[in-house]
Design a protein that fits this description.
Chain A: One of its GO terms (molecular function) is iron ion binding. Chain A: This is Aldehyde dehydrogenase. The complex is a heterodimer. Chain A is an alpha+beta fold. Chain A contains 20 helices and 29 strands. Chain B has 3 domains: 7-53, Uridine Diphospho-n-acetylenolpyruvylglucosamine Reductase, domain 2, CATH 3.30.43; 63-173, Uridine Diphospho-n-acetylenolpyruvylglucosamine Reductase, domain 3 (2-Layer Sandwich), CATH 3.30.465.10; 179-299, CO dehydrogenase flavoprotein, C-terminal domain (Enolase-like, domain 1, 2-Layer Sandwich), CATH 3.30.390.50. Classes of the chains: A alpha+beta, B alpha+beta. The interface between A and B is medium-sized, with 33 and 26 residues. Bound molecules: flavin-adenine dinucleotide.
Chain lengths: 818, 303
């Protein structure tokens, strides 16, 4: 299935949605819900193993300090304590954590700090005791002597600093810097009628699932087997990374997956909890549970989102058509850079959004500071990228006095231009953007709202309307983690990011699907698997059994991330189903003594074309396959089982000089969000009066759960736009730790979202499905920013910094920037 | 986030609880609804060796009228006060303020008196108590004394009650004819502590303000009375300009505070990204204006 070629001619033309399906496209209740709603889900913290111990981590109180000594003697003697492992001790016994950043040996990332602490919250020691209370009591008895260093907090200053470094071995605080030029940027800027410039700031945020990241290590000293029960990493393809850190043969490590109360990217990998629990189990010989508390999660969870400073320039013509885009971004990665600058790969995958823009320059500087490192948060850098693009588009509209919906319409990529290659090289597989905009405008009653707005403004009310048209790339190819480096000695290859499944149809025809990556993270993997299998075998999704296999002995699987899982599972299950159905066809043909070509699959069985009385149902055929070897064709094995590994549907090679990054994120959806707000001038609060979201993510699988993605993503986007911020003071001290001050919107703060759907199938995936996992969060920040601008246009306020907190808005109104 | 070790004691009566506090000394803490104390224990911001639970002491949860006073006992839950028809009709400011405290599950455990005794500078109920000139009954092994709200709050999380004294009840004057009351606040998220809030009680006779009390939270180390604003309103025949001027005066009389101070007022220990003083003050001003306007309407005195 994988196409790893430079030849893009093999992308089929977009097709019309197929409406002849039984399950795909029907809203069904999630198969996960009955157990979750009855409290029978078994989350990781529900798991209790005999003799299990509890681990807690001592976190650094300093942003930047040398560890002079760690004295754990008092803690070791405390009641209930079984073991204490200090950072220096851990560095002797265990390897670094897997790090795909540039030059990982120069910013070595460990489960516990060994010689220096690099941010407030970094682990310095682990205490393991009979219960968590005792472990926390003993933690307070560890004496650490620090030699406190000057904190490195401001990334702009840090980029220039060569004296005070987060990692001395790196010789700089800039982990990565490069300017990419795609197309004729200089020419396009010279030809343009005008250039609009903006300076933007995207604040640091964190995804907050209901449960934090957690693991239970269970080491068998007899066999040397390590089982880790975990709600984070459990994707087979990279599990070996944990084995290396633990010093265990990769085939003796089994990461067993558990459902979780959400991830939103934040549980992507999360080596730290797995390695913490596993190493302490190896040391104590007993099962050890490590559950991050909210402070561990927020301060030492390795999953903060992008933290960016943008300079953006858009070159365009008087009639509002765009020419070229320049982006210069400083990204404050914090103390480590585990995913490299992959989040800029995400931004580059749709850097020009849904617009025709012929050239782009992209400069990125990844700066290290004494803060918690970044990880993934729903959007993984494309969230900030979309916002920056929509901000400059709004600024251009204002400068040309064009309606914000109009300027967008003028620049949308037309439907006949797909498959479309954006300047960075990524391919958009299919799209039909204008109907999405029209649908949204109509659903929102845009003209009506504009009239209402005028009337309300006449009463002195500050009413604003915001519109964004934005893309949502899906199905990442891991190439985006490597294409940054074009060292001749390290040839870059495309990386498939495969997903495997196993399927069986048992003796009585019941279907089981085995998955090899993370189960429910809020994203309904089981429902998707059940629906796709149900579509293939004509059974009810509720009757399909879905099993989650551990990593040991598993097929390649990369799990959720980059909105890939639905597409990848659909491909894999379709593939495995075909193998089984082919075998059923051979058995049926043999049994009926007809030619295979004369058979057709109808309603869960094979029949001779048009002859319903000749039908052999799946249960009859399965019975033969399992029990009646003599009824099988010669050489046919008993049973009905198939494995299928679905590779990435479309990857192409980057050019050697990186003037084109190839296609790496090809299944591209589109959305239009419209919002009306009222701003309270005195308090700066923003009230959402109306919210419309129309999305096109290709063929819809389960509209009901997709709507859930849109509401949830929009809620997170509202938090991003208005409230959530992980702030640090000038000393590098986090000012936010708990939900007291990290303000996630609640149900009371999120409006009813009025949805609409359009369906433009992908030509390159099973059933034309595209991913939709970041729906909402990629659009809401831009829409709300625009609406606030519009509400406060008489005051000349523009939102150039997120979150636009009430305090900031009042500051802008009082003329302090904005 | 587990509390440090402590021993648990159950006060059989309020007097017994007071004896326990005396016996156990300053390392003992009274436990009411636990909605402030338990998070502090879990974050290890407080490490009392003993907790004396008042929860099962009989008769303490009463909400009753006593002449010109409405008396709220030490263990009366916030939800009970919120849902009491007496409170709503006799002390509407208390009823309105308590609705703004947290969320229903927390109000079902948290007590009104516990919140007042906890004395947070941003909390609604201490501020309402101050606006209403509530009288607090302090009970210890030595006996009983009564303190007015203004003398009770002495600083951030500190009061004039000794460590071994229990606030056995708080008495609120009931409103008479011509009195309108209102609570107004702005919080960054619904159910959060306010950035600033104002509690107002105004009595109007013949179109003239004959009595007015205004208290503000969120702008100092304790709730404060806005005396200058009260003076600006008293004796006036209010119109929107007078109200706006009074709101401006309410903030002008405050002392600006630095971010570090504000953080310490608001959270017991850890730093918080508190909105800066200037913003708090401007929010306070708007809340005073809104609360005064509403109270006037309710008093039937707005024009
Ligand atoms: C998520 C959340 C949100 C919240 N939001 C708000 C909010 O918006 N506004 C708000 O005002 N509050 C809020 N609170 C706090 C809540 O109102 C508490 O219930 C209240 O502050 C304390 O009352 P309590 O009965 O729970 O007291 P406890 O927590 O039991 O005690 C608090 C302190 O007061 C002392 N104390 C209690 N009762 C007495 C007494 N009778 N005599 C002497 N000392 C006593 C205790 O020793 C302790 O030091 C919130 C709490 C939570 C958990």
């Amino acid at each position: 299935m994988t196409r790893t070629t430079d030849n893009q001619a093999d992308v089929p033309a977009p097709t019309a949605p197929h409406k002849d399906m039984k399950w795909i496209g029907r809203s069904v209740k999630r198969v996960e819900d009955p157990k979750l709603l009855r409290g029978l889900g078994r989350y990781i913290d529900d798991v209790v193993l005999p003799g299990m111990l509890h681990a807690v981590v001592l976190r650094s109180p300093h942003a930047h300090a040398r560890i002079v000594s760690v004295d754990a003697e008092r803690a070791r003697r405390a009641p209930g304590v079984v073991a204490v492992l200090t950072g220096p001790e851990a560095a002797e016994q265990f390897g670094p954590l897997p790090d795909s950043g540039p030059a990982p040996d120069k910013h070595v990332w460990r489960v516990l700090a060994a010689d220096k602490v690099h941010y407030v919250g970094e682990g310095v020691a682990v205490v393991v005791a009979e219960n968590r209370y005792q472990a926390e009591d003993a933690r307070a008895l560890i004496d650490v002597t620090y030699d406190v260093l000057d904190p490195i907090v401001d990334p702009i200053a840090a980029a220039e600093d060569t004296g005070n470094l987060v990692h001395e071995a790196l010789g700089t605080n800039v982990a990565y810097e490069r300017t990419f030029t795609f197309g004729e940027v200089a020419r396009d800027f010279a030809d343009a009628d005008l250039v609009v410039r903006d300076r933007l700031r995207w604040g640091r945020q964190t995804a907050h699932p209901l449960d934090t990241t957690a693991a239970i290590g269970d080491y068998d000293a007899g066999t040397g087997e390590m089982v880790v029960h975990t709600n984070s990493i459990s994707m087979t393809w990279l599990a070996f990374g944990a084995a290396v850190a633990l010093g265990i043969p990769s085939n003796k490590l089994d990461l067993r997956p558990y459902i979780s109360g959400g991830s939103f990217g934040s549980k992507q990998f999360c080596w730290r909890s797995t390695v913490t629990a596993a190493m302490m189990s190896k040391i104590t010989g007993r099962p050890v549970k490590y559950v991050e508390d909210r402070l561990d999660y927020q301060l030492n969870g390795d999953q903060h989102g992008s933290d960016r400073y943008y300079d953006v320039e858009l070159a365009l013509m008087r009639d509002g058509t765009f020419r070229s885009l320049k982006i210069d971004c400083v990204d404050d990665y914090g103390a480590y850079i585990q995913f490299g600058v992959g989040s800029h790969g995400n931004a580059l995958a749709q850097v020009t959004g849904p617009y025709r823009i012929t050239s782009t320059e992209y400069r990125v500087r990844a700066v290290l500071t004494n803060k918690t490192q970044q990880g993934a948060y729903r959007g993984f850098g494309a969230d900030a990228g979309n916002w920056a693009l929509e901000r400059i588009v709004d600024k251009a509209a204002a400068e040309l006095d064009l309606d914000p919906a109009d300027i967008r319409r003028r620049n949308l990529i037309p439907p006949d231009a797909f498959p479309y290659h954006i300047p960075s090289g990524n391919m958009y597989d299919s799209g039909n953007y204008e109907p999405v905009l029209d649908h949204a405008l109509q659903r929102f009653d845009y003209d009506g709202w504009r009239r209402k707005q005028e009337a309300m403004r006449a009463e002195g009310r500050k009413i604003g309307i915001g519109v964004v048209t934005a893309n949502e790339r899906s199905v990442y190819g891991a190439t985006e983690f490597w294409f940054w480096f074009d060292d001749k000695d390290v040839p870059v290859k495309t990386t498939s990011t495969p997903e495997g499944v196993s399927m069986t149809v048992d003796t009585v025809g019941a279907v089981t699907v085995t998955l090899y990556s993370t189960p429910f993270w809020g994203n309904s993997s089981d429902t998707v698997a059940a629906m796709i299998a149900a579509e293939e075998f004509d059974v009810d999704p509720a009757d399909v059994s879905v099993v989650h296999h551990g990593t040991k002995g598993g097929l390649p699987a990369a799990g959720p991330g980059g909105s890939r899982l639905t597409v990848m599972l659909a491909g894999a299950i379709t593939g495995a189903s075909k193998k089984i159905k082919d075998k059923l066809r051979r058995i049926a043909a043999h049994d009926m003594e007809v030619d295979e070509a004369d058979l057709e699959w109808v309603d869960g069985g094979y029949q001779v074309r048009g002859a319903t009385d000749s039908r052999r149902g799946i249960a009859d055929l399965a019975m033969l396959a399992y029990l009646v070897k003599t009824a099988l064709p010669d050489g046919e094995e008993s049973g009905l089982a198939a494995d299928f590994v679905y590779d990435h549907p479309h990857l192409t090679m980057p050019k050697p000089d990186r003037s084109d990054l190839g296609s790496f994120y090809p299944c591209v959806g589109h959305a239009c969000h419209l919002v009306a707000v009222e701003v309270d001038e005195e308090t700066g609060s923003v009230d959402i009066l109306d919210y419309v979201a129309v999305h096109d993510s290709g063929t819809l699988v389960n509209p009901r759960s997709y709507d859930g993605q849109i509401v949830g993503g929009t809620a997170q986007g509202i938090g991003t736009a208005l409230a959530e911020e992980m702030t640090y003071d000038a000393g590098g001290n986090p000012l936010v730790g708990t939900f007291w001050d990290y303000l996630i919107p609640t149900a009371l703060d999120v409006p009813e979202v009025n949805f609409g759907h359009e369906e433009t199938p992908s030509p390159i995936t099973a059933h034309g499905i595209k991913g939709g996992g970041e729906a909402g969060r990629l659009m809401a920040p831009g829409a709300l920013s625009a609406a606030i601008d519009d509400a406060l246009r008489d005051h000349g306020v523009r939102v150039t910094e997120l979150p636009a907190t009430p305090e900031r808005i009042v500051g802008w109104l009082q003329g302090q920037g904005g | 986030m587990k509390p440090p070790p402590f021993s648990y004691h159950r006060g059989r009566t309020v007097e017994h609880a007071a004896e326990l506090l005396r016996e156990l000394g300053p390392s003992a803490r009274l436990l009411a609804g636990g909605q402030s104390l338990l998070p502090m224990l879990n974050l290890r911001l407080a490490e009392p060796a003993h907790l004396v639970d008042l929860g099962s002491a009989p008769g303490l949860d009463a909400i009753r009228r006593d002449g010109d006073l409405l008396v709220v006992g030490a263990t009366a839950r916030q939800a009970a006060v919120e849902n009491s028809a007496d409170v709503r009709s006799l002390v509407p400011l208390l009823a309105e303020a308590v609705e703004h405290v947290a969320h229903p599950p927390i109000r079902h455990r948290g007590t009104v008196v516990g919140s007042i005794a906890h004395a947070s500078a941003v909390a609604e109920l201490p501020c309402a108590a101050l606006a209403l000139d509530a009288q607090l009954t302090l009970l210890s092994a030595d006996g009983v004394r009564t303190v007015g709200a203004e003398d009770f709050f002495t600083g951030a999380f500190t009061t004039s009650a000794r460590a071994d004294e229990i606030v056995a009840q708080v008495a609120f004057p009931v409103t008479g004819p011509g009195t309108g009351q209102a609570w107004s606040e702005f919080s960054l998220r619904r159910g959060n502590f306010p950035v600033a809030g104002a509690g107002v009680s105004i009595t109007v006779a013949d179109g003239e303000i004959v009595d007015v009390a205004i208290a503000i939270c969120g702008v100092s180390d304790r709730p404060v009375r806005a005396r200058a604003a009260e003076a600006a309103l008293l004796g006036s025949r209010p119109d929107p300009e007078t109200v706006a001027a009074a709101a401006a005066a309410s903030v002008a009389e405050l002392t600006p505070r630095g971010a570090g101070d504000l953080a310490a007022h608001i959270l017991p220990v850890v730093a918080a990204p508190v909105p800066a003083w200037g913003y708090r003050a401007s929010v306070a001003k708007s809340q005073v204006r809104r609360a005064v306007t509403t109270a006037l309407t309710r008093a039937g005195g707005v024009r």
